[in-house]
Specification:
63% helix; 9% strand; 253 residues; Double Stranded RNA Binding Domain; three-stranded antiparallel beta sheet; Ribonuclease iii, N-terminal Endonuclease Domain, Chain A; 2 domains
Length: 253
């Protein structure tokens, strides 16, 4: 009960816009309780919760933002998710690839971070605190990946991260995947292209059969001006979806 009261008090202070030091022992301790672990190197945890925007606004307080930890944590996350899917022997390779992509995208990770309620404990800029929708999801996903990176580096033990994932992330992932269609590859392909090249894929269409009743279309998907895959369908929408699925498997393997 005392833990709940402590957290409520902290959240009330945050909601009242009082100045809370995210690096305080109290804030870090409550965050660790939510995560279900204790990070020995508090410097790593402080870096993991610090956004680039916060560093820009508070250069005297923040030595490093969480971007490098996020990059590292993303790799750890991909490995553990791939391992988990591989051990689930009922999943064929193509389905595993699409599931991994869906799991890794910002929207899904952002939902998990919201379930963990980590946002009140992050060191964010004024504008980042007000972010909603995709912007908020991206911030939360980045922070969660950075935290995963910090957990690994704290002990350099993959089993510690694996235990954290099993307790706090994988069950939430399964629940989210049950509620959404992972068979639509267009959005995750767009996210990958945007992240790697700063622009979305481009789709080009051609009409193969001009039958009035059954027109057949071909869709080419290009990423960074390079053709990645093509597919046919009885509508542009169907051809686009099939081409995107092929491209996803190619760019993630």
């Amino acid at each position: 009960m005392s833990n709940i009261i402590e957290e409520l008090c902290l959240c009330m202070e945050l909601s009242n816009n009082n100045v809370i030091n995210p690096y305080s022992e109290e804030n870090l301790r409550i965050l660790e309780k939510k995560l279900g672990l204790s990070v020995k190197n508090k410097g790593l945890l402080k870096t993991a919760i610090s956004s680039r925007g916060a560093k820009y606004e508070n250069p005297e307080l923040i030595k490093a933002d969480n971007e490098r930890l996020e990059f590292f944590g993303d790799s750890v996350l991909k490995f553990l998710i791939s391992e988990h899917l591989f051990k689930s022997k009922s999943n064929p390779e193509g389905k595993m690839t699409l599931m991994r992509i869906e799991i890794e995208n910002n929207e899904t990770l952002g939902k998990i971070a919201k379930e963990l309620n980590i946002k009140p404990h992050l060191f964010l800029s004024k504008s980042e605190k007000k972010a909603r929708g995709k912007g908020e999801n991206s911030l939360l996903a980045n922070a969660l990946e950075a935290i995963i990176g910090a957990i690994y580096l704290d002990e350099e033990n993959i089993n510690t991260v694996r235990t954290f994932m099993e307790k706090k992330i994988l069950n939430e992932l399964l629940q989210i995947l049950l509620l959404q269609d992972i068979s639509n590859p267009i959005t995750p392909l767009q996210e990958i292209s945007q992240k790697r090249y700063g622009k979305p894929p481009r789709y080009e269409y051609s009409l193969i059969s001009e039958s009035a009743h059954n027109p057949l279309y071909k869709a080419d998907v290009l990423i960074n001006n390079e053709k990645i895959a093509e597919a046919e369908g009885w509508s542009k929408k169907q051809a686009k979806k099939k081409a995107a699925k092929k491209a996803l498997i190619l760019v993630t393997n």
